[in-house]
């Protein structure tokens, strides 16, 4: 619920009592005041989400009090109570910062409508603020391997439902991307999508992150705060690395999943929510259950629809597609010009085991895009990978036009070191002296090429600067 605490400021007792009775029946926390001075005392003791404010009060004008409310840290919404509902009066109230108005004599249906609009507005503001801080972005799932095709099929099937989903896989496989796709394929795609990294929040604060807290609930709780479940009401919540929460909090999480209700830390009012839950883990949760580290009942409550994200080593056919995708993205982000990967560079990517999965590949490609010489294809050196032989050509394939021919005509044969020297100089000639391109053409590292050239200069008596 985006609205909780409401303050009524009006000097007419019957008006205060009428609104109070209506709001308490809807389980709001309500306070009232008959003057600005009394309202100041209420504001000093508590924060409020909404204030019903009379235009004319014994000790001041309600219009001037709006400015005072606008400077509060909580910045409650203000609904003016006025007998003057002329266009000029309403426009003046809105200009001063009022959210809405209710005309006198009071209309309870109008109060109901104003409360509904205020709740929707307040929730939208809080969710937007949270999402802006989280900087949520969309990244598509790249690949055409059988494992990824099957993964997309599962996402499509479960996305249309409200089922709880457990997404498991090694670090860096893209579990959060899978959760994003499930959300975007769901009927809740236009509702909030709130994420909680359970491993990144300290044990002392995570309950407050989940369920929110009341003012004064603990040291530093200077204001009421909505929890992630409350922000996600009507939408979806992602519990990232859910295996990292304590057993005590697991019991409270189980209650939310079963009963769809909770209380804020330091509060006693039960808050009901309608939230779809997605969870991720990089651990074997069933093993954690057997070891007493994870509640069995919570495991089965979360594991309604399990999805296993495959590691990159099991989808090697996607490595080239992913690498080229990342290279194009980072070249655009960093304003770089890319000539792609050399044959040896791509062979090195395909030969690597990728213990860090897609995240490791992404980081390697970004670093290589920055280090690569402009106009030169990326080799294994720029990526920090061991050189690997390029894919073998099909037998009897025609010789490509840029293959270096170093075998002399006729029956003349030269020593191996002389053939090597000729190959190096011919490669430099073909690349107009570009050492990086020549090294890629020869399938050797740039360091090896430099060492060979230094050796040849020493043999001919040339200086290093020659």
Walk me through this protein's architecture.
The protein has 466 residues and is α/β, with parallel strands linked by helices. It has helices at 13-24, 36-45, 62-70, 87-96, 108-134, 146-159, 175-184, 206-211, 228-231, 247-259, 285-290, 296-302, 319-334, 343-351, 357-371, 380-383, 416-430, 435-442, 446-460, and strands at 5-9, 29-33, 50-54, 56-57, 60-61, 77-82, 100-103, 165-168, 193-197, 212-213, 225-226, 236-240, 261-263, 270-272, 276-281, 305-308. 33% of the residues are buried. 45% of the residues lie in helices and 14% in strands. The chain folds into four domains: 5-133, Rossmann fold (3-Layer(aba) Sandwich); 146-310, P-loop containing nucleotide triphosphate hydrolases (Rossmann fold), CATH 3.40.50.300; 313-383, Helicase, Ruva Protein, domain 3 (Orthogonal Bundle), CATH 1.10.8.60; 401-466, Homeodomain-like (Arc Repressor Mutant, subunit A), CATH 1.10.10.60. The termini are far apart. Strands 2-1-3-6-7 form a five-stranded parallel beta sheet, with helices on both faces. Helix 6 (146-159) packs across helix 7 (175-184) and helix 18 packs across helix 19 (446-460).
The neighbouring-strand order within the major sheet is: 2-1-3-6-7
- State the CATH superfamily name of the largest domain: P-loop containing nucleotide triphosphate hydrolases
Q: Which CATH architecture of the largest domain is right? A: 3-Layer(aba) Sandwich
In DSSP terms, counting alpha (H) and pi (I) runs of 4 or more, how many helices? 19
Counted up, domains total 4
The value of Rg in angstroms is: 33 Å
Calculate the terminal CA-CA distance, rounded to whole Å: 77 Å
Note the main sheet: 5 strands, parallel
Say what oligomer this is: single chain
